[in-house]
Amino acid sequence: MNEFALLNTFRKLFDGTKYKHRDSSLGDLVASQLYEDLVSLGRSKNLVARVQAHERVVNLSNRAVGKPSRRGDGTLGELVPTAVAITEAGLLVARGEVANIEIGAETKILAKAMIKQIDRVIGDLLRQIEEFRSTGGKPICVGIVGINCAPNYTSYEGEREWPTNGKKHKHPIQEAEEAESRLISRAAPSFDEFQVIRFRATNVKPFPFEWADYDQTAKEYSALLVRLSREYDQRFP
User: Fold this and answer.
1) C-alpha to C-alpha distance for 120 and 179, rounded to whole angstroms
2) Core-most of 45, 67, 175, 236, by most CB within 10 Å?
3) pLDDT per residue over 97-124, tens digit each?
4) Is the peptide bond before 163 cis (omega within 30 degrees of 0)?
5) pLDDT by residue (tens digit) across 156-205?
């Protein structure tokens, strides 16, 4: 297969453009690409066949119809019989309303001030698992967290700039290792699969982006896709 859709989409959030950290749709965008990669890999014949028949779709609202819940970033489930599957050019998986959740993915991106917000991020991740499972069935829960390892970073609030200084406002590289350690120990065990995406982005013109180690990240992610495909066939034969 070509470059993974999820990793490519993640890169485009930063590469050559200002990252909008308050845009909640960005997590949805990244998480939805998980299903594109699963179908492209083709290891789960059940999933591929159901997606091609438009029986399984990525949820437009990230909630199961008739099941109140906190929204997740990317969910896949069985299309509501009275709903219409919406196809989009260039995408393998259609969109639509779902009756249940078979796979739920939650995405978080830590670009700066990681330790300050780590408890909230972990709490959000754990609460989302509860929400996925509250809809019934046995959904496969996937956590995806981006961790910035750049030597400096600037965020923006309107016209104001907030650069890190290494002292009161720590640079990403100063906090990345500790943030990942806390996520792995406190959040990852509750998920069926958990992926850390390590990257470097300063969020300063010309907005460069690079992977901390693309080969390792791609290897970890491809292994996740294989395990996820096998787990899907076991839970949803």
Assistant:
1) 12
2) 175
3) 999 999 999 999 999 999 999 999 999 9
4) no
5) 988 889 999 999 999 999 999 999 999 999 999 999 999 999 999 999 99
